[in-house]
Amino acid sequence: MRRILLITFCLYLSIAALAQTAPQKITIKGVVIDSVTNKPLPYVTVNLSDLKTKQAIKSTLTKEDGGFELKGTAVKAYNLVFSFVGYKGKAIVINGTSPDVNMGKVLLQVANKGLKEVSVTAAKPLIKQEIDRIGYDVQADPESKSLNVLDMLRKVPLVTVDASDNILLKGGSSYKVLINGRSSSLVAHNPSDVFKAMPASSIQKIEIITIPPAKYDAEGLAGIINIITNRKVDEGYNGTLNSRYSNLSGLNNSASVNAKEGRLGLSAYSSFNDPKNIPGSTSSSLQTFGANPSYLMQSGNNDQLSKFHYTSAELSYEIDSLNLLNFEYSSVHSNVSLDNNQFTQLFGVTNNILQSYRITSASNSKPGGTDLGLNYQLGFKRNKNQLLTLSYKYSKTPYDNDNTESIYDRFNYGQPSYLQHNNSGTNEQTIQADYVHPLKKINIEGGLKAILRSSFSNFETNNLDSIKNIYVADPGNSNNFHYNQDVYSFYNDYQLNLNNWGFKGGLRIERTVIDADFTSTSSVLNQGYNNLIPSIAIQRRLKGNASFIFGFTNRIERPDITELNPFVNKQDPKFISTGNPNLQPVLNHSFELNYSKFSKGSINIGLSYSFANNTIQNVTRLQDTVTFTTYQNLGSDRKLATNVSVNYPLTKKLSLTINGSVTSVWLHGFVSGREYDNQGIQGYSYSYTSYKISDNWRTGLSLGFYSSNVLLQGKSSGYVFSNLGITKDIFKKKGSVFFNVANPFTPNRTVTSFTSAPDFYQTTASRYVYRAFSGGINFRFGELKSAIKKNKRGINNDDKKASAPASVN
């Protein structure tokens, strides 16, 4: 670590010494004061942009005496914009006829509306604290031009990305991912794979909704991650082209285009990856079991290739000033192939070999999805914010998987080679009505919703008859599974804004009806339950742009098709995994207290406590010498967490961002009649240092540490990572090129984990390439004039968390 910091510090000194300062051509200065008290206003954001191209040029903050000064831009026409929390924004046109411009006193008026949000008063703030969420402005981050969305998520408060690229929110995997406030088949199976292929430059910001209001479905114990893409469509057209290559993920390309002509507007986005020559990984495991210990050893290597293509489009038509139609389409197609060679040996108490065999397996999965949506929005003449929205959405999410297992070099092992096929998926229809009624100080929202969801899994196993050399169906490992889940809900939200207070509260009522049918075994499951979901958030504004926020909410975790699916994955005959169709929903209670202060920089400090009973846990048991893993409702989960986020400009060219979290975890449950307790501390820390070499060059260093995760029956290992990158703007800042190196001093990494039970102890280690080199280019084109209308409400099925990928051992 010391070596990394020393090298980076020397790099910064060398770059700074070579950097040249552009000649001074114009100076703009003045003093910003309160129009009523006539007192100076410190830390007001002053943004300077080109009047003709609207390109941002420079920005600064006013000093303690309200004064500001901008230097170093050419003599021409500009637009000078002043913004400050609690005050009306102000724009002044500078004609650019003189190199010295003295604005004198610039008066700002207090805003009439009560407090809605507190934001970082910087040129373009990275973090924005609202009453029920934290927003991370991706476009304000210089690294957005060179990183993908998954890398960007590592920077966002309360979000962690572990060594296996699994996304965690507040240390948990039960959350919901939305795209533009709505569920999407894009992230239905494995959002981390999608986000690795999506450039950060294609999104506007990331919202972490920790206290979801009643208008959101109640699913997701930890909250909601909302990815907001660049959807601004104006009169005219614009677009982006992105290309990125990495030695670990291959080539990723994407393009977007926005266009508007009259009342018709279009937004479209497409991305695909072409992974070639991706390095594989090796793995090993050791399992010890029995009173007189025998042990199982496995070693192998894996090669995985994932292809991905995503397309989305949105078409809007303004019938008139009060009526708006919006049509949405998205589709995702994936192909994931995995080749595995594995050697297994079972040893007795005297180290004699009891059993051994080799397996060559080939797995091919085709996750996909299609979304079709139609929204109608009706406005009212009395108030432009009074809206009635009617929405319909159809989603189809198929998932096909084929496994071929060839077993050879056998010693005392009789299980035949086999084929497995699983055709599964979910079809979903949603009907929704939302109404927003703003009053003078209170905003009222309400709505009705029905989600009609049908999931299925038709799987079969065929064993090889070695004598006849044909595959024969195995009825004991085949089934047709149909699972219908209908959710009917009503919600009512209220938001009250006063001078120094903000209140937001609501209530959601949900009725869930479940009908499951195991066709092959002639068994059924019928049940229904009701949930009452309150939510409340209170914000108190303090002096100096600071505020306290307290929140409470209940959240539900409904089991998804991956956890319910009784498909028995026998890809590794010694480690078998399956779902559990008898899982019940989990209700989580969450309390939060957050403090935020924004001046020259920003700081967010949060404390949260959550607890849930009857939680869904991934559990493992031993039967003979075979390990079975499944899901069960089996115990309690309590978490006490504190998190800190700091963003501070050290100088005009050097800035620092720090994120960190520490969580105490208590787990309790029963597995196969045995009581388990596990507790511990887990957390992460992340820092990013950015240096602006010149107007067109920028470099940055990221350092991070993630601790091990506490599980009911074990732990996983922690790890350290680093990233050094440099970016250059080209084509008059309409494009950029970049180069990054991740973990330059760690070519390979080994991930370890252990699982413990009274009758066995298992350790697993996987080794893979860790050092990564990537580079690419992005380009923006087009001209914009006037904004297009967008539906302010729509369908967002966040009642069911994002599914993890199918288990592959």
Describe the structure.
This protein is mainly beta. The protein is built from 4 helices and 45 strands. The protein has a 22-stranded antiparallel barrel. Strands 8-9-10-14-15-13 form a 6-stranded mixed sheet, with no helix packed on it. A 4-stranded antiparallel sheet has the order 3-2-5-6, with no helix packed on it. A hairpin with a 4-residue loop joins strand 19 and strand 20 (294-318). The protein is globular, with a radius of gyration of 28 Å. The model is unreliable at 1-23, 113-123 and 797-809 (pLDDT under 50).
What is the gist of this entry?
By secondary structure, this protein is mainly β.
Write the layout of secondary structure elements.
Layout: H1 2-18, E1 27-34, E2 45-50, E3 56-61, E4 67-71, E5 78-83, E6 90-94, E7 100-108, E8 117-119, E9 127-130, E10 134-137, H2 149-153, E11 159-161, E12 167-169, E13 176-179, H3 191-196, E14 203-209, E15 224-229, E16 234-246, E17 250-261, E18 264-274, E19 281-289, E20 294-318, E21 323-347, E22 353-380, E23 383-411, E24 418-438, E25 442-465, E26 470-473, E27 479-497, E28 501-518, E29 523-542, E30 546-557, H4 561-564, E31 569-572, E32 575-577, E33 586-598, E34 602-623, E35 626-649, E36 654-671, E37 674-692, E38 697-706, E39 710-711, E40 714-716, E41 719-730, E42 735-742, E43 748-757, E44 760-769, E45 772-787
Parallel strand pairs: 1-7, 13-15, 32-35
Antiparallel strand pairs: 1-4, 2-3, 2-5, 5-6, 8-9, 9-10, 10-14, 11-12, 14-15, 16-17, 16-45, 17-18, 18-20, 19-20, 19-44, 20-21, 21-22, 22-23, 23-24, 24-25, 25-26, 25-27, 27-28, 28-29, 29-30, 30-33, 31-32, 33-34, 34-35, 35-36, 36-37, 37-38, 38-41, 39-40, 40-43, 41-42, 42-45, 43-44
